[in-house]
Amino acid sequence: MCGIVGYVGDRECKELLLTGLERLEYRGYDSAGIALVNGSIDVTRRVGRVQMLRDAVGDGSHPATLGLAHTRWATHGGVTESNAHPIEACDGSGVTAVHNGIIENYVQLRTRLLEQGHQFHTDTDSEVISHLVEEHYDGDLVEAVRLAYNELHGHFAFAVIHRDHPNEILAARRQCPLVVGVGDGETFMASAIPAFMSETRRVQYVLDDEIVVATPEGATFLTGEGDVIERPIEHVDWDESAAEKQGYETFMLKEIHEQPDAIAETIGERLYHGELQLDGLNLDEQQIRELSRVVILACGTAYHAGLIGRYLLEEWARIPSESDIASEWRYRRPVIDERTLVIAVSQSGETIDTIAAMKEARAHGAHVLAVTNVMGSQATRDCDSVLYTRAGLEVGVAASKTFTSQVVLMYLLALKLGIVRGTIDATRAETLLAQVRALPELAQQTLDRGHLVEPIADRFWESEFFLYLGRYIGLPIALEGALKLKEISYIPTDAYAAGEMKHGPIALLDDSTPVVVIATDNHVYEKVLSNIQEVRARGAHVIAVATEGNTRIEELAEYVLYLPRTEPELQAALAILPLQQLAYAIAKRRGLDIDKPRNLAKTVTVE
Ligand code: AGP
Fold this sequence. Notes:
- Helix content is about 35%, strand content about 25%.
- By secondary structure, it is of the alpha/beta class.
- The longest helix is centred in the C-terminal third of the chain and has 21 residues, at about 400-420.
- The chain binds 2-deoxy-2-amino glucitol-6-phosphate (AGP).
């Protein structure tokens, strides 16, 4: 998730762009850059926060009245100055661009453009945009951008300027946010309203599959075929804080609703036209076939995602797998060797217990794969392979979109290993891959039902205890759902294997206890229904997360939160969504600081 800012008008724009970037740093800040057009294009890029860029360009004025700026959250290509945006096309072309999102077919496009003689100078997916525009440019910048846009597949927004077009910014979006700020004799383009809200509150929203031509006189909206679209100008009355959260009341709520995007970007070009490619997994097919076991290490929410990975690695890759809490594992005497794959899951890539466990694993000769959300984090330096979730910056202390992104990466990894090891039927793999591809849409459908948790929160927000139950991949979801509630509502909560409840925790139940049960459609569904009967016999109140069509559960549960139907294993990525929304609704009723819960830190760098 990166930040784009553009300006075209009658004022010097350097300071306007830098200020706009600073207002978008919540979208990502591992590098930043600015391009200023004044007969030529002056481009400055720096690793680090926008302040580093500001220091580099200095306080002096710059005559440019056209420019682009960008703050990066790296997904493709390391955190380096050369990979920072804006990214030019070939030397002397006069084209430069900024991009947010994923170009899923960038490998194919890059190959073709290289064959056409283009010189690439970054290892990003974004650079193909600049060279595509250059390739199509014959004096008509609008047509060049339109043709380039129509060749791109993926989940993105981008903006382009050209040295010879001092009064135009071209931009386009497909699923990633882009908004136009309408001034008097000037026009802004940005990923989010905060970038220009101090200059104008008149906005025009760019919708999916639209191309925008911004000039000092305003913006023209086009379809991919070049037809003009009328777009009303709206007025926003957000305060600065609300604007930073895109209008959501908290960062966590924004991030809960960013999950379809985060899942889509995590899948990205890794699954394209049915082909599954995990660049960053530095194991060849022989090494994958020779793996004797997998150990997944993590803390907190990441541990819960790792638990799901364990089930699927056994199920699809038929490889003995275990998942352990990093702070426990590092003090065992683990039996691992060079045929062990250790997967360290950490969204921050800085959790000290996980980092220490990684070092311990490497000392034993294991191949260590880091699964993290932050390029350049410590975990990426202490590993042999790295796979990035692409959830974008997560500000809320309670993890949401990073969890679902981790789960999706577990799906892709387990499928990849199963396909290489020949342990998963090809037709089954094809079905699963197609359903993984559908997860962003299924997640959106699930989030759209969020209002159904409100009556549940109304009834139970003052409860003094919740119990969460699940079996199989429902158990990690029960654990994660319980953690969300604990973290942001401070309600004592327990989560247990549903089959284990009768061995003790059932003593906790009485006729006031709300019990959340993960009862999605899979081979243990009937067993879970029996467990629900046990809960009801104690008078407790059952809130079930179930799969559409399994209506019999309505005879047993007082509340049923249905998920769209998909493959049983993939339901886990959806089942957590209503539980995030339920925890949020309860915490909100309790009037708590949801983004900054007491006693918690976003990254735990102490033991
Ligand atoms: C998640 O909601 C918690 N904030 C916490 O458990 C977190 O998952 C844990 O500290 C691990 O963090 P990491 O993914 O950055 O390693």
